[in-house]
Description:
The chain is an alpha+beta fold. The protein folds into 4 domains: 1-43 and 209-408, Multidrug efflux transporter AcrB transmembrane fold (Up-down Bundle); 54-207, no CATH class; 412-459 and 578-754, Multidrug efflux transporter AcrB transmembrane fold; 479-565, 2-Layer Sandwich (Alpha-Beta Plaits). The protein has helices spanning 2-14, 16-37, 51-62, 90-105, 118-135, 140-150, 176-187, 201-207, 213-230, 233-257, 268-299, 306-314, 318-348, 356-387, 411-421, 423-438, 459-471, 493-505, 538-549, 551-558, 567-601, 605-630, 647-675, 680-708, 715-747, 756-761, and strands spanning 74-80, 159-165, 195-199, 446-447, 479-484, 510-518, 524-531, 561-565, 643-644. Keywords: Cell membrane, Membrane, Transmembrane, Transmembrane helix.
Amino acid sequence: MATFLYRLGSRAYRTAWPFLAFWLVLLIAVGTLAGVFGKTPSSNFSMPGLDSVTTMEKMQERFDDAEDSTTAPTGSIVVQAPEGRTLVDPEVNAEVNALLDDVRATGVLADPETIVDPVLGEQGLQAQMVPQLQAQGVPEEKIAADVAAVSPLSPDETTGIVTVRFDADEVGDIPAEDIQAVTDVLDAQDESALTVAYNGNAFSAAAAEINLTSELVGLLVAAVVLLVTFGSVVAAGMPLISAIIGVGVGVLGISLATVFTDAVNDITPVLASMIGLAVGIDYALFIVSRFRNELIKASGANDLEPKELAQKLRGMSVDTRAHAMGMAVGTAGSAVVFAGLTVLIALAALSIINIPFLTAMALGAAATVAIAVLVALTLLPALLGLLSVRVFAGRVPGVKAPDPEDEHPTMGLRWVRRIRHRPVLHLVAGVVVLVLLALPAVNMRLAMPTDGTASPDTPPRVAYEMTEDAFGAGRNAPMIAVVDAVDLPDEQRPAAFGAATQEFLGVDGVANAQVVGTTENFDTAQILITPEFGATDERTSDTLDRLRDAAPGFADETGATYGVTGVTPIFDDISQRLQDVLLPYIAIVLVLAFVLLLLVFRSIWVPLIAALGFGLSVVATFGVTVAIFQEGWFGLIDDPQPLLSFLPIMLIGLVFGLAMDYQLFLVTRMREGWASGKTAGNATANGFKHGARVVTAAALIMISVFAAFMLQEMVFIKTMGFALAIAVFFDAFIVRMMIIPATMFLLGERAWWLPAWLDKIVPRVDVEGEGIRHLTVEDGQEPGREPAAAR
């Protein structure tokens, strides 16, 4: 592979335009197709096989008008009268109706004539429900409770809910301009006496739009780090350009994928851009840094400032520079390929969990990483070849960019010498710190994103809180029990439905239960269950468990069966499924890390401590994230919420690849020194010296890119950005730069021990490009070209 990459790098450097044209045409083509055919990503997080999903499917089979509550193109408009007034007041009611007239006038809603103000809706409900329930002999107290549970008007008549349905089959099919037309009308009410907010599937999807602020901030910080690393404006810009192009192709490709699958949700492009931008910059950084080293070697000097290097470049032949580029791609590029593969494998492994939306997110991020690798290997050398001798131009005043190949002690060398002097102290300190930080993780709670977890002061969150205050917390967390009485005689079915209602009312945590629909032949009923608590309240999950626990006894007593579905049960089941697979996935990733590093380093101890170190950094990340975002420690977050259900498993998949990147770029140089005859201790110190500067720059870039996503409005994106940033910090600076070298010093020569029988069967992987070190400038010339000396 190293030889192939050497040829690829030198060729791309010499003949830049074909490579540049390929990526430019691809970017334009994918962007055009995505713009013409791409759809709005789905906000559906459902997955097959869950009890709630199976029940939802049964309900849709039995009831013609039933639909998936997670994808229905509906929303709610919540209106509140001015303080001291009610919606029944004629002036206030007139203002509400004027608002609804404007909403109907948008022409984007299905059946706009059915949209009525809450007061009229309450009157219609009373006229319909009360006589029916009285005829059935339902007590007046129960009638009042049933009406209140579904009424669009709050008991104090100050707040009302208006349900609207967009003219589309599913929420993902609603044109963005249609949602914008309605929200523009509603937002214009800010100056009126009414308080107006909106939530639900349609409006929550619109509120989840991603702005580019985070990417721009991340790029700005990355640019500063690159300027310090290279001391040149032009060289610093190369990783940024290649990363932007890679992310552009990847994210546009994800948009185009919405044409073929509805599994792509609205978080998929966010994760893809987050990881793609970070690894794209890092991979390019590794190659440009190695290219600089190779040029310095070719100049015959130990170290050169950017200005001096630029002068030397003018005296180098194209063949010499192309050879240096080939060596950089063949060595650092080989490591980039392997590092990219670790990320791809970790992300692709998420598909074995068999959760469609999670698989789509993982594969979308993996595809973007794969593109980042290809861009770093082909587009980047072409860009450097196009710039030719100007690649290290634009010197930054006052910035010295020393090369680790020189003989002067670097900061990294001074740090590793300190660890070598007291390895036990640094090892114990690193482990103890990470273990202590991990302790809050035992209280971790997971939940799917709802309007109740939206950012404070956003319309979905305001509408959620208005509904909770006026109607009770359970109004935001309705459940539907589908009671199946197919196997019962016709005359026993009504009694079974009544028994189910009484069963549910007796469950702790249920505020109301009532039959809201039956099939024509009366073999199935829908029973609306209103819990006492909100959608993300742990007590609601407990209530759901109690409802399901009662199902076997109910079946034994009545012969009928039931299942519970709705948005809240579906999201609760998803969270539980993700929590159940978390530990097995961690085990899979740790075993995978061990096997991959065994192939690279041909050692038992190095992979073992690398995998265990990764585990420590992950659990510490969970602990800190839970403490800050869920428990609200230190008051840094004024709105503590449960963690996003798929954050832990996605975090593991992403951080695994990044951790292996740092392990690879640090320890390969250690092994190279040991294999060339250095003692284990000297090899560790020297390898750390060579890799520390680039890995530090790469980690700082990763941290800045991830942390910048905390500027997004969506709480779960903030949390994801923080968790990824802190995970990189822990893994790069505590595990890779303290625990790993300390352990290597303690192990000494045993660090590179591999049983003889295993040495025979483990294939050899040339990550450091040992197979191309014998190549000369002449080897990198294109067939048929004259030697450089002859020209």
